[in-house]
Design goal:
Number of strands: 0
Low-confidence stretches: none
Mean pLDDT: 85
Shape: elongated
Structural class: mainly alpha
Helix content: 55-70%
Number of helices: 10
Strand content: under 5%
Length: 199
Amino acid sequence: MALQDSVYQPKDAVTASIKSTLVTGAAGALISSVQNTLTKQNVTAWGIFTRTGGTIAVFAAMGGTYQFTKLASANLREKDDSWNTAIGGFLAGSVLGMRFRTMPAVLGYGAACAVFLGTFDYTGGVLTGYEKDPNVDEYDRKQELRKNRRLPIQETINDLGEGRGIYGPGYEDRRRERIKQNYGIAIPTKESMLTGRRD
């Protein structure tokens, strides 16, 4: 059973790239309509295709290129890892760079997209951090995290010393003795001050 799980299952790159092209093309149409709305000249509704239609084409080409390249490289390499995402990101970024008609733009946008998408996929592909176990209560999980990082007070005092808000048991008595030895000043205790005031 474990051997079957480790065998790579090929994916249909053409169907997935057609779906991705349609989805990103629709997103490009939305962006193009916003661009068309914000123009200063009076243009018709067809301006989203005639005037700012290049945005639709770039979005659709980027989405289709990314999805096809990612799945095709996974099928060729027979591995499903972050390198496939980086390869797809490079070609998708190159499509975006072709709008500027210079080779540095093509390579630069390709490299930037490859690094961003490859890193994003490598780190788990989520912006909210690692996935938490839904069976564990959040309060108990946080208490366990606090216990893992909490040190005993005596160990903290041994490492840092007393002061700066870190005081061990009997600190007042040790401080009083230190001041009396070093400076010859006797500091009264709270109890003696209270009894002295009552008298």
